[in-house]
From TrEMBL:
<dbReference type="InterPro" id="IPR002110">
    <property type="entry name" value="Ankyrin_rpt"/>
</dbReference>
<feature type="repeat" description="ANK">
    <location>
        <begin position="141"/>
        <end position="167"/>
    </location>
</feature>
<keyword id="KW-0677">Repeat</keyword>
<dbReference type="InterPro" id="IPR000210">
    <property type="entry name" value="BTB/POZ_dom"/>
</dbReference>
<dbReference type="Pfam" id="PF12796">
    <property type="entry name" value="Ank_2"/>
</dbReference>
<dbReference type="InterPro" id="IPR036770">
    <property type="entry name" value="Ankyrin_rpt-contain_sf"/>
</dbReference>
<dbReference type="InterPro" id="IPR048063">
    <property type="entry name" value="ABTB2_BTB_POZ"/>
</dbReference>
<feature type="repeat" description="ANK">
    <location>
        <begin position="56"/>
        <end position="88"/>
    </location>
</feature>
<dbReference type="InterPro" id="IPR052089">
    <property type="entry name" value="Ankyrin-BTB/POZ_domain"/>
</dbReference>
<protein>
    <submittedName>
        <fullName>ABTB2 protein</fullName>
    </submittedName>
</protein>
<dbReference type="InterPro" id="IPR011333">
    <property type="entry name" value="SKP1/BTB/POZ_sf"/>
</dbReference>
<dbReference type="Pfam" id="PF00651">
    <property type="entry name" value="BTB"/>
</dbReference>
<feature type="domain" description="BTB">
    <location>
        <begin position="379"/>
        <end position="448"/>
    </location>
</feature>
<keyword id="KW-0040">ANK repeat</keyword>
<feature type="repeat" description="ANK">
    <location>
        <begin position="102"/>
        <end position="134"/>
    </location>
</feature>
<dbReference type="Pfam" id="PF00023">
    <property type="entry name" value="Ank"/>
</dbReference>
Length: 559
């Protein structure tokens, strides 16, 4: 609008305003493309002539390059235009400089707008191929022309700039932590990978590696050696070229950006070159391929998990990686994928033993001499179990647990004929006898419990609220657990509120999941709707258990 265009002139004196009008006229004459007016236009620009800058810090050559006006560019070059002059930082003299164009040169504008013939013309005339990077002053931070061409995916421009010596490893210069908002601090590999320009990335990779600046400190040598060993593991490509330190870092950054933006094919191609996985990159790649239903790539990624160094395991693996992998296990119908997930879970759980179930040191409130066990002569209450009588003593039972106390009280209140017989249904006689042995012996030390009876005794102990006996049965279960009985033990633990035993079973499942997935009983446990009906969610419990294990071994232990 006119009022905006001329508002700045009102603050100027007559002479300065006249010069400003003349300069503005000169720019307008050049920007209209009239090459026949170039001499008059340069005269109108003022004392700096063809290199005069307007309020935006741009010269006539920059405007001509942005417009792609090859004839005007050639004439401005012939008139003595400075090819490598930069857009300055914003100042009172140049109040309208755009933040992202600071330190750009004419070549940068030509590349940004894709004018390859103009780029060729500038380079032939001697423009520096790196733009303002040639003058790396203290406040210099700008994208190089090659970075912009890589981000745009302009293969021809990238090829031309590379042929003229542009360095693909040159990162955007940065000062005092302030960088351009356009692309952040990225190299050419990162720009092409972040935008999915696979052909451009391949072209960049054809450039020979520059070994300059690859002098390492002792710490870097040690780290590089470990990383190089790791990077060669698990990769399917043969005859990998050993990447120098600088290029390896650049490709790791590119791998990060390709994964962040969902270009998995580029990520996998970089991995095939020997670039090692970082945990975040692996998780993001797995997420993308899973949601895209690219199961062959999912399988490849799962196989590659073991190449990630354990020192890289962090909170992201615990909170995001595990959730993703268990989501895949929950929905996948592919046995190979499920087996690979099982191997990862076992690998993450580690070779350390499953934490043991602690004994419950809780003395019974009362005990009688074993001589009184099932003694008819001295009993004051009789139980009927499987048609057989068992003689006991109320004083011992009512102090043993609230369940027995309630049973004795209810029997007395509802039995007007004072019968002393209490019927116990749904329990075997030998199980009830062991229950009584525990009470009369005052503990489990003198008891011999057959392996086949442990689970039923655990159930009985839970029913009659005998915590010490239940815990002893849990420990026996942990000692006798196997692939064949682990599912049954887990179900008993969940039904009878035995969290320590359930946790032990979950550890056993995670350690032996590959073998367990071949069993129908385990597959039914984790996939069947019946488990949901029974209030079981084993996959959620396994994820929680593995998250706790990972957190304690790999995260908390480092703090």
């Amino acid at each position: 609008r006119p009022e905006c265009c001329f508002s700045s002139f009102r603050r100027l004196d007559a002479k300065a305003a006249t010069e400003k009008f003349q300069q503005d006229l000169g720019f307008r004459m050049l920007n209209c493309g009239r090459t026949d007016l170039i001499n008059q236009a340069i005269d109108a620009l003022g004392p700096e002539g063809v290199n005069t800058m307007d309020d935006q810090g741009m010269t006539p050559l920059m405007y001509a390059c942005a417009a792609g006006d090859e004839a005007m560019v050639q004439m401005l070059i012939d008139a003595g235009a400075n090819l490598d002059i930069q857009v300055p930082s914003s100042s009172p003299r140049y109040p309208s400089v755009h933040p992202d164009s600071r330190h750009w040169t004419a070549l940068t504008f030509a590349v940004l707008h894709g004018h390859i013939s103009v780029v060729q013309l500038l380079l032939d005339a001697g423009a520096h191929v790196e733009g303002s990077a040639v003058n790396s002053g203290e406040d210099n931070y700008a994208e190089t022309p090659l970075q912009l061409a890589s981000a745009a995916g302009n293969y021809e421009l990238v090829s031309l700039l590379l042929s003229r010596g542009a360095d693909p490893l040159l990162s955007m210069l940065e000062v005092n932590g302030v960088s351009s908002s356009l692309h952040e601090d990225m190299n050419c590999f990162s720009h092409s990978a972040a935008h999915g320009h696979r052909n451009v990335l391949r072209k960049l990779l054809t450039q020979p590696q520059q070994l300059k600046g690859d002098v390492l400190s002792l710490e870097e040598i040690l780290a590089e050696g470990v990383e190089s060993d790791t990077s060669s593991q698990g990769s399917s490509s043969e005859g990998q070229v050993r990447l120098c330190k600088t290029r390896m870092k650049a490709l790791q950054e590119a791998m990060y950006y390709s994964a962040e933006h969902g270009y998995v094919d580029i990520t996998m191609e970089l991995r095939a070159l020997g670039v090692p996985w970082k945990l975040h990159v692996w998780v993001e790649s797995l997420r993308t391929t899973f949601y895209q239903s690219r199961y062959s790539v999912v399988q490849t990624l799962l196989r590659e998990f073991v190449t990630i160094k354990e020192e890289d395991y962090n909170e992201e693996l615990v909170t995001e990686g595990l959730q993703l992998m268990f989501e895949i296990l929950k929905t996948s119908k592919n046995d190979s994928i499920n087996q690979q997930l099982a191997s990862i879970f076992s690998h993450c759980y580690g070779s350390s033993p499953i934490p043991s179930i602690p004994e419950l040191r809780r003395a019974l409130p009362a005990r009688l001499d074993p001589h009184f066990l099932n003694n008819k002569e001295m009993s004051d209450v009789t139980f009927l179990v499987e048609g057989k009588l068992f003689y006991a003593h109320k004083v011992l039972l009512v102090t043993a647990s609230n369940r027995f106390k309630t049973l004795m009280t209810n029997k007395t209140e509802h039995n007007s004929q004072s019968s002393k017989t209490v019927e116990i249904s749904d329990m075997k006689y030998n199980i009830f006898k062991m229950l009584m042995q525990y009470l009369y012996y005052g503990g489990t030390e003198s008891m011999e419990i057959p392996t086949t009876d442990i689970l039923e005794l655990l159930s009985a102990a839970s029913l009659f609220q005998l915590d010490g006996l239940q815990r002893h049965c849990e420990i026996l279960c942990a000692q006798t657990i196997s692939l064949e009985n682990s599912v049954s033990i887990y179900k008993y633990a969940k039904i009878h509120n035995a969290p320590e035993l359930a946790s032990f079973c979950e550890g056993f499942f995670l350690k032996h999941m590959s073998s367990l997935l071949e069993q129908d009983s385990f597959r039914q446990l984790i996939y069947s709707r019946t488990s949901k009906v029974q209030g079981l969610d084993p996959l959620r419990d396994l994820q929680t258990a593995l998250a706790g294990r990972l957190h304690s071994v790999y995260v908390t232990s480092r703090v």
